[in-house]
Structure formats: structure tokens, C-alpha cells
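Q: Convert this sequence to C-alpha cells.
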Amino acid sequence: MRISWKVLGWLIIGIGALGAVQVAAEEDSKLHTAVMDPVVVSASKVASPLSQVGSSMTVITREDLEQQGIHNVGEALTLAPGVDVVTSGGPGQLAEAYIRGAESGRTLVMINGVEINDAISPGRSADFSHLSLDNVERIEILRGPQSAVYGSGAMGGVVNIITRQGAKAWHGSMDVSGGKYSTWNTLAEVAGTSAGVDMNLGASWGTSKGFSAAKRTQTYAEPVPDLEPNGFRFWTVDLGLGYAISPDWSTHASYRQGREDAQLDYFGNDAGDTLNFTKNSVQQSAHWDMTGRLNAWWQQTLSAGLAQDDREYHDEPAPGVDNASTYHGRNVNLDWRHQVDVVDWNSVVAGINYRQEQGRSQDPQYGDYFDEQSTHLSGLYLEDRITQWGAVLDVSTRWDNYDRYGARFTCRLAPVYTWAPTGSSVRGSWGTGFNAPSLYQLYSSYGNVELQPETSAGWDAGVEQKIGNACKAGVTYFQTDFANQINYDFSTNRYANLGKVQTQGWEVFGAAVPMEDLTLRLGYTKLTANDLTKQDTLGPVPLDRRADYKFTLDAGYQWQGIGLHASAQRVGPRWGRENGTRVTLNPYTLVNLRLAYAVTKELEAYVKFDNVLDADYTEVVGYNTPRFSALGGLKYQWR
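A:
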């Protein structure tokens, strides 16, 4: 059976490659383009078509997510070149994203423009394990230093999760599914307009018995002791509201809350296995904005955002003993933006921004306490966007005044040129970034109030080519240098500015519609990520958990109510640590399949198979990954 699954996987890859060759020959194709050019809002302060963005960017649409049957943001990010998502165990366990090899805490993660990075986590990273996709319209992924646009934290890139808005006719859907590991998921959404107010409401909940996060690393004589499964359950609600005050003024608001209860293991390998360690977390985010025109050429937007994380951990090593710890973090953001369009080829944006970060924690087991602490920064930003003769140039500058470190200046250049007769584009970007130490790095028992901000400088350059109306492909080279990187110093048991890191590599992508109802996408990332402060016999030491390369291929086909989607990933070797020793984790191949059938116009039945090759692979040393699994469900939509 294993051999047949492998044959099936390689057949899928082969069919995809043949399809790509076919597309290359169809330069005069009249098919409706699937190479979309959506308007994006994350690349700069000016909403722009994706084709006019100089920075390297990927947009994952709601249609992409539905066709592949994806239910989690972390899983969705694996579709993008340059992004590697690493999970310490199965569902409900810590999941972090590395963009172009940068540390996970150097990526700014937002929902509707509101930062949701955990203010009280050690590195201010975002955990994708509990981010469901209910009410999500699209995900915009921006790669490279973006501090000139977003300030502190956007050194490696930006992930902006954008929820649905603006529904007019009432419609809704419900999706119920279940499968291996006693997994059950339910998703419900409804949207429409009442009394002039556009409304979108989504809710999801699910549960799973899961599997052991800790991976067996020892050899036992019979009988082999069982590893306890780590179950989890979650629920999420999401609400969006919009109202047109006048033809020139409108306001929008959104609120999202998610709760997750998960069983954890102390750490990887057999010795870390337990069912006495649990996590309860609640994440909330809220956003409000008002946008309007003062005249034909002057538009302004006032916005406010709040995100809050509350985590509790309960460790019960013996009856009646509970080593409980709590973490509370909050982000506040205020922004007042002005856009001036005196001529149609030039947009100037200027604004003022205020950000505050608050947090406190209590961990009696390890004697780690700190009372409420906060930091804040005020920023002024200016952006000039020039569009002339097929070229677009974005020039962004930002001045931030940080309460602990004074003024920080960042900038970014992002040009793109398109030659319309051939459909060829050349694009690139150069920018600087900085990242202030987290509250935990400053004020915890392991903190260091003498820490200085991290800095980065990076650039990329690439070409993109359209072939007819149904295919495009591109390649990009990138390099980013990080200085003053904050790491844990084991000699002092404190955080310190120790690191100097360089990441570089290539990203390749392609998208095509070789025939009606058939879509193909491929991506390839080659990454070198080194700690330049450490050397061995081979040179600089590679960073842990970064895959050397990743190749992805997706194929989707619709025919008379039947939908088939297949995806394959080939992930290269990566480094890890086992008992303090650096080890190599083997490459692996994952193949997923989804088959859907339209029973009626409103009702769809589907089945999804993950890891059909039943690959036994490792992302983090000592932690398990899911094996072959199947899940089936029904989705009902009404309009």
C-alpha cells in the first residue's frame, strides 16, 4: 500500500509538470485569466493592484482556502513561497512562521491591520495554532523588512489576515466535518445588510483527541509504554460591521475572539510525555476606522486597534498540586492617515501613529514574576507613490520615538516596471527595519533592561513574465542582514544582544490555467540562513528549524459538480538540537488530496486525505507530526 501511495504522489507531480509545459506553449490562449491582480492593502499605505507592488508579496484568497479545504491560518501560510511554518506537535501545539529565515518574532502578524503578536511571549511571536479561518476573505503576505511602513517588529515580513466586509445580499454557510483522531469541526457564517449596516458574522468550534506531541526517541523491550495523546478544543467568533455615513464617508468595525484549551507535553521525546500539563488561552482583537474625503484630492482615515492575549498553564504533577502560571499581554494602536492625490500619477501619504505594549506574568514554578509593565512609541511616516510610463516607485520613510531608546529612522524603496507589449515586469525593494526588545526579554526573571533594539537591512530583486492570458511565472533573489539580534545567553542566564544573522536565497512561483476549470500553481524556495557569530569546520552555523528548500505544487480541477484538488510539498533538510548537539532532520514529501461533489446547488459533500504517503517526518526534534489521516464533511450554502 505504501508503494502505491508514493506512485500516486509522483504521478500528481508529473501531471502538474506536464500541465505547466502545455501552458508555456499557449501564448495566444483566450482563457479568462486566473492570474489575478487583486487590490492589496498591506504593501504600503496606498491600496494598490498587486501588479504595482515592488515588494515581494503573495495573496491567498478565500477561493484558494475553500478549494483546498484549509481550516487554519498556519496551514494556509505553507502555500506561500519564502514561508516555513513549524509546529511542535499536532493540532493545538505551538505553530510559528519563519519568513525568509527570519526569527518568528520578527514577523508582524495582523488581523485587519491590528497587531496580534503576543506581547508577553519571550520573542513577541504569534502562535498560529489557534487562528481559524472563519470569516477570512484573504491573507496578504509581505516579505522583507517593512519597518518603514509598520514600525517595530516588521523586520522579516508582514502577515495581514483580512476578514470579510461589505456584504449586501443576505447569504450564509455551514460546514461540518469529522475524521481521524476523533476530530470534529464546525464553521458557520452569515452576512448581509440591514438598516444600511453591512454585517458579517462567523463562528467556528472544534475538538480533537489528537496524538502525543512528544515523539518516542527510546527503544523499549515489550511491552512498549503508550504515549498519551494531547487533545484540544477551540471556538472562535468573528463580527464585522460597516456603515456608509455619506457618499464620501464610511466607518467599519470588527471584533474577533478565540479560545483554545490544549493538553501539552513538557518537552519533546518520551520523558516529556504527560497529560497533567494544560493550556487555556483567549485571544481578542478589535478594529475601528473611519474614512472620508475632505475634497476631491484629500482623503483621511482615523483608526484604532486593540489586541489582547491571556494564557494560563496548569501543571498538576500530583493530586491537589497545581503549579499554575498566567500571562497577560495587550497591544494598542492609534493611527491618523492623510492621503493627497493632487495629480493622478502621484499619491502622497502622511500620518501619525501611536503604539503601546503592556504585559504581566506570574510563574511560581520557575520563580518568574513581573508586575504590569508597558512600553510605547510614537511614529511619523511619509510615503510618496509615483506612477508614470509603466513604472511605479514607492518611497517610504518613518521616524519612531521609542520611550526607552529615543528616535529610530527607517526607510524603504520599492520600484516596479512593467513592459505591457510583452507582459514582462521587473521589481525590487530595499529597506531597513528595527525590532524593540519584548517585555519578557526586558522585565522577566531572565530579562535584561540594557538590551538594545535589533536592526535589519534587506533587498530583493526579481522578474515576472505573463504568458498569454492564463499563465505567469517569476523568480526573486533576496538577502537580509540582521544585527544586534537578541538571544538567550546561557553564561549569564539573561537575554543579550549576541546575534548577527544573514539570510539569502531564491523564490520561484508559477500560476496557470492550461484549460478551462484546471488551475496549477507551483512554488520553490531555496534558503541559506546562517548565524555569522558562530563558526564550525564548514563555516557559519546554519539556523535551526529552517528548511534548506521547499517545493510546492497545487492542482485543482472542476468538472460537472466534481472538484478535485491535489497538493504536494517536498521539504528539504533542516537543523535541530538533540541534547545540545546539532543534528540534521531528513527531507520529506507530503501529498494531500481533496475530493468534493455538489449534491445540489446548495449542498457539497467532500473528503480530504492528508499525508497520503504516510510520511514519518520531523519538524522539531523530539516532537511528532501527523501521519496519514482522512476527514469528511458536508457544506451547505444559501443565498
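The longest helix spans residues 2-25.
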